[in-house]
Specification:
The structure holds two protein chains of two kinds.
Chain A (H helix, E strand, L loop, with lengths): L2 E4 L4 E4 L4 E3 L1 E4 L6 E6 L5 E7 L5 E4 L2 E4 L9 E3 L8 E8 L6 E3 L3 E6 L1
Parallel strand pairs in A: 2-12
Antiparallel strand pairs in A: 1-4, 3-9, 5-6, 5-10, 7-8, 8-9, 10-11, 10-12
Chain B lengths: L3 E4 L2 E4 L4 E8 L5 E7 L6 E7 L2 E5 L6 E7 L2 E7 L7 E8 L15 E2 L3 E5 L1
Parallel strand pairs in B: 2-11
Antiparallel strand pairs in B: 1-3, 3-8, 4-5, 4-9, 5-6, 7-8, 9-10, 9-11
The chains are: A mainly beta, B mainly beta.
Amino acid sequence: GDSVTQMEGPVTLSEEAFLTINCTYTATGYPSLFWYVQYPGEGLQLLLKATKADDKGSNKGFEATYRKETTSFHLEKGSVQVSDSAVYFCALDGGATNKLIFGTGTLLAVQP
Amino acid sequence: DTEVTQTPKHLVMGMTNKKSLKCEQHMGHRAMYWYKQKAKKPPELMFVYSYEKLSINESVPSRFSPECPNSSLLNLHLHALQPEDSALYLCASSQPTGLAGGPLAKNIQYFGAGTRLSVL
């Protein structure tokens, strides 16, 4: 079945460092791919999305490119801030079932 | 506006209580979802309503009873819960998925802030 694998955390970075959180997927067809962010004590917020191969999703300085050849959707940001500290979930659209398939989540801690 | 509103934000209940969680959206979405999230884990899907009809029940115990009174509202009725049911309960909404597996298929779910439930 469809699945998402993302890198284990926690990821600890200093402010202004470069961020990469790896995400790979297994799916049939052409799933849409998402990154959600969950700040402490809050629900999930859609961070960015890509609906087809080679699409680049971007928002708030974060980017991710849908790579069909490597089945990947890695999240990147050039310069992280303390306010980016959160849990990041990679997810794919499970097709006609209306299900989202989530990765295990990666905790990012940014230190001043 | 991509807001999904959940009430209450926090709920403490005993194992013999009956309570309800409420979720509301005004984005015209016709699919609504309940998830359960334990600490440091991803959300686990519980129920999906599509066009106000229950389309997915992920083998959830009957002490959780969902209800979708109209296209904007989703309730989760709770009765005789166990301490292990303590968790963050998230509601989400989206448009129902389009072509299965095709390039137009999309399932952009918007989440509420959740209800943090403690069962004593």
